[in-house]
Write a structure and sequence with these properties.
This protein is of the alpha/beta class. It folds into two domains: 5-122, Rossmann fold, CATH 3.40.50; 126-276 and 308-324, Dihydrodipicolinate Reductase, domain 2. It contains ten helices and 15 strands. The protein has helices at 14-24, 39-46, 57-62, 78-87, 102-115, 129-137, 171-174, 177-186, 278-291, 300-319; strands spanning 5-10, 29-35, 52-54, 68-71, 92-95, 119-122, 144-154, 189-199, 208-217, 221-230, 240-245, 248-253, 257-261, 267-269, 323-324. It has a nine-stranded mixed beta sheet with strand order 14-13-12-11-7-10-9-8-15. The chain has a six-stranded parallel beta sheet with strand order 3-2-1-4-5-6, sandwiched between helices. Strand 2 (29-35), helix 2 and strand 3 (52-54) form a beta-alpha-beta unit. It is globular, with a radius of gyration of 20 Å.
């Protein structure tokens, strides 16, 4: 690989722009090309940094000055773009989800392993300051008996907001960060059941989604997920992750606070060290992996386990039945 690595950015949305900002601060990379379905959007990002612009993502991957690829596009494009990059022999970083089906994700991992290619999947939720604090404190709880996620997210949806569009995948594929954090705490799930309801539907778009899931882990642990996404103001908890163990509980609140609760109910606020530039950290890991001096913070085993959970949840919601999970499932 050259001293200064040329990067192809596939996408022109919020995440692509965040990655461009981080890459522009580095001396060991340059953005060679920006690809977008809209040439004007690609040109808007590419012109100020003297990069090429195109509306042909396959041509962007094929460019000889694009030594590595970052996939920051809409979810349905992640798998085909990642496959094309791997088949071209180029290291590729993919924003989650890696694919919109477990089978497609598994095939991509098999391809990367067969070719010895770098396949890096972004899971920056594992790097966020509050979650690092919570995860580091987990041993203080002893054996984990339960955990729960409760969240009501209220916001207006622009037409391009893919989170309010079922065409962009089942909710836990869209929000891979949710099972990613849960499984980072407890390991594999053993079964899952639940339901998902929608209202205000217009084609594949909707105004409200409510996801309610229960799952098992370990010998007798129980996890619960209550996650609501809505365009209307609605009361409810805001982003609370609660982990219950034999020696107390840990509570992460509003993506910024972590509390340790002892068996007597006394609460201790745990220090959350300020962290910034999560995409910058993610990019640094990707580049270190390419150079052979680092490894992904989210292993491909974790990526697949996260999507196995999402796949099982989708089947449970669709059938109304409990779905069992096993290492060979």
């Amino acid at each position: 690989m050259p001293t200064v690595l040329g990067i192809a950015i596939l996408g022109s949305g919020r995440v692509a722009r965040a990655r461009l900002r981080e890459l522009n601060d580095r001396l060991d990379t340059r953005v060679a090309v920006v690809a977008s379905r809209s040439f004007d959007r690609a040109y808007e990002l590419a012109f100020p940094i003297a990069a090429a612009a195109t509306d042909d993502w396959e041509a962007a991957i094929a460019r000889p000055d694009a030594n590595a690829v970052m996939v920051c596009s809409a979810n349905p494009y992640h798998a085909p773009m990642a496959r094309a990059a791997l088949e071209a022999g180029k290291p590729v970083s993919v924003d989650y989800p890696l694919a919109l089906s477990l089978a497609d994700a598994e095939r991509l991992v098999e391809l990367a392993q067969a070719r010895g290619g770098v396949l890096h999947v972004e899971h920056i939720e594992l790097l966020s300051a509050w979650f690092v604090t919570l995860r580091d404190a987990l041993p203080r709880l002893g054996r984990i008996r339960g955990l729960s996620w409760s969240n009501v997210s209220c916001r207006a949806a622009a037409p391009e907001d893919w989170t309010f569009d079922r065409a962009h995948g089942f909710s836990l594929f869209q929000q891979a960060s949710l099972p990613s954090r849960m499984l980072a705490c407890v390991g594999q799930a053993t079964w899952i059941e639940g339901e998902e309801t929608f209202s205000g539907e217009n084609g594949t778009r909707f105004a409200r989604r409510a996801t309610r899931l229960r799952f098992g882990f370990g010998d007798d642990g129980i996890g619960e997920i209550t996650d609501v996404l809505t365009q209307e103001e609605e009361a409810g908890p805001t982003a609370e992750l609660r982990v219950i163990g034999e020696n107390g509980a840990l509570i992460g609140r509003q993506h910024r606070e972590v509390w340790l609760v002892d068996p007597g109910g006394a609460e201790e606020s745990l220090p959350v060290m300020p962290r910034s530039g999560l995409f910058g950290q993610d990019i640094a890991v990707f580049l270190d992996t390419i150079a052979g001096v680092g490894r992904p913070y989210a292993s491909l085993d974790h990526v697949i386990e996260t999507l196995r959970f999402a796949d099982a949840a989708e089947r449970a919601v669709r059938t109304g039945q409990r779905v069992s999970l096993s290492p060979a499932d």
